[in-house]
Design brief:
Layout (H helix, E strand, L loop, with lengths): L7 H8 L3 H9 L6 E3 L2 E3 L2 H12 L7
Helix pairs in contact: 1-2
Length: 62
């Protein structure tokens, strides 16, 4: 079974940002996401990678 997908609300909470900010980034294709019909979902891994890229940190860096 695959990784559980997060909703906008759950993803925004994990990133500690307003949901509206996340929706704007998705609309501009600046945050990786998955579309399931009209629904948008996120994985913890893609959020972790996109958050690291946004702050200039990379996986494994200290």
């Amino acid at each position: 079974m695959g990784e559980r997908l997060l909703t906008f609300s759950e993803a925004a909470q994990r990133l500690n940002v307003p949901e509206s900010w996340l929706r704007e980034k998705v609309a501009r294709r600046q945050v990786p996401h998955t579309r399931l019909g009209k629904h948008v979902r996120f994985t913890k891994e893609t959020l972790r990678r996109s958050c690291g890229a946004a702050t200039g940190h990379h996986a494994g860096s200290r």
